[in-house]
């Protein structure tokens, strides 16, 4: 009998990429909470725009948010 796996985690690196691309360092928790706030805000503001993915990439001074719609 097989084990059930998370389909997103199973496909990472093969079919899909990561939803967030950054290195946390000491303030990992703060950045993770900020990413969650950004995603919730975008989904709330664009609820009727059928947003399928929100990709967040960070450098030291720049945050890039890519919104993919269906």
From TrEMBL:
* InterPro entries assigned: KH_dom-like_a/b, KH_sf_prok-type
Q: Which UniProt keywords apply?
A: Ribonucleoprotein, Ribosomal protein
- Is the Ribonucleoprotein keyword given for this protein? yes
- Give the matching Gene3D superfamilies: 3.30.300.20
Entry superkingdom? Bacteria
Per the record, its GO cellular-component terms are:
ribosome
Concerning CDD domains, the annotation shows:
KH-II_30S_S3
Q: Which protein is depicted?
A: 30S ribosomal protein S3
Query: Where does this protein come from, organism-wise?
Result: Nonlabens mediterrranea
